[in-house]
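Q: What does the predicted 3D structure of Glycosyltransferase look like?
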Amino acid sequence: MSKKDPLKSRRIFVGFNSAGAAGIWSFTRVLRRRGYQIDFYGMGEISFNMPVDFLLKFSDYPLRSFIQRFIYFFKILPKYNVWHFNYMEVFFFYPLNLLILRILGKKIVCTFRGSEVRSKLRMKIFCFLADEVVLTGPFLVKSVDRYDIIIPYARNVQNLITQTNKSNNQKLTVLHAPSNSKVKGTLYVEKVFKHLNKLYPQVEFKIVEGLNHDALLNEMIKADIVIDQLLIGWYGGLAVEAMAMGKVVMAFLDTDYFQFVDFGSDLPIINTNIWTLKRDLEMLINHTEDFKRFRIEGMKFARKYHDSKKIAEKYLTIYRGSDE
């Protein structure tokens, strides 16, 4: 007889939706299907039209908004045992919000996802008060006071694999779809595209921004090569989706980060940067016979390291903590 999981008798709060919504939605769906009481909350505008279980909207006036958030937090406080915050977003004044949870014996999980760690004081307080600190990638290791585990981005990989069809008579297409053009190095991509567009009229060089998630996936279906970011030193959720869909992916990878994960040497991403992008793109355009190898390796990599079922298992371990 299998042992009953005590976590299934508890409720898990996950918020909010400013960053990583696609991954959060996918792994929380896995846990819901397995019988865990987990709710994904969004606050304010929904980035890229991503779904949430509960969307909270508060007043635009600061004082009224604070009161509304304060009241709502205490309304749902007894409901949840585990509180998982992403992007360092909470309901109100973060030291007080976290301290209340801590005093009441709630488990606090914090996932750092990117640029939010630049707020050093805020980061330090989250690290101090959280029971578990998670990073989505090794590019954040040197920016935080502590962390317990690196859990990669989650995606519904199997669903993405079914969306790989492209008509054979279409042009070779190179796509760049930044969520934040400054962070992703879009200015450099634009310059390279402008130059190569004259040399390779048979290739379509495309930059799209501000699309909802479904529209973005439709653009990726039509692409052959997807350029992620050129500045951060690691790859993002877009690269994961592109690999799962069998696309050739390019990004800047800082090899110093490989030591912090067990799959650094397995990455099937073409390592490029702002100085070598033109040369690397031309190499790909002139050697399309290499595409098949990158496509196969990328799809395998996405299944192995980013599938939402595997990421859900990692978060279960974090949510259980000392109960295991």
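A (community wiki): The structure tokens above were generated from the sequence. The mean pLDDT is 93. The longest strand covers residues 37-43.
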